[in-house]
Amino acid sequence: MATINLIRGMGTFFKECEHPESKWSRCPHEYKIRYRNAAGRQTEEGGFANQEKAKARLVEMYQARKNSPHSQRKAERVQKYGAMQFSAYVREWTKSQRHLGPGSLRHLDSLLTHHLLPTFASRRMGTFDHKVVEAFIQTMERNGVGLAAQANAFDKLKAILLDAHRLGLYEDNPLDGVKLPSTTPSAR
Q: How far is C-alpha 51 from the chain's CA centre?
């Protein structure tokens, strides 16, 4: 089964038959489409007689998803928080950590002051990806930061970035593929 991708995020159309893609126009089998619905779930529909009808349905569903109130709210959040500097975002995020006791808040403040803010204070929230996080960990290792401090700093950065990911700032989780601090840095 071959699939044809359209513009990113629109979906694909395909046939579930043994005919090669070059023969699809003469093949009697129906086209199927696969796309993400407004809730973000993968959806399949079948019964399209030709490519034009399959593409038209994909365009229709893509436009409906893009114009849905959910998408508009997400776009507003991305616009607001994506351009926000890490330091400002962290100030807002810290206010939402009502469950932390005084000792935990002091620990959070220490991690922010000594590890996260010196590195990321002016970075825009929308610019984080796995390469940025990986470089941060490697820098801590190079600078001889202890394993416990590395793990704690990474955990806080992870909590902050996962909060931003839940808001919709990132298509892909910026922590995917990041190697966690796992070895004691060598003395250099």
A: 31
Hunting for tokens 């079948």 — which residue is that? 46
Spell out the per-residue pLDDT of the chain, length 188, in tens.
Answer: 555 556 777 888 888 888 888 888 888 899 998 888 766 678 888 888 888 898 888 888 888 777 766 666 777 888 888 889 999 999 999 998 888 899 999 999 999 999 999 999 999 999 999 999 999 999 999 999 999 999 999 999 999 999 999 888 888 899 998 888 765 555 44
Is the pTM here over 0.85, yes or no?
Answer: no
Q: In order of start, what are the domains of the chain with their CATH numbers?
A: 3-67 (no CATH), 77-167 (1.10.150.130)
Tallying the residues shown for the chain, one arrives at 188
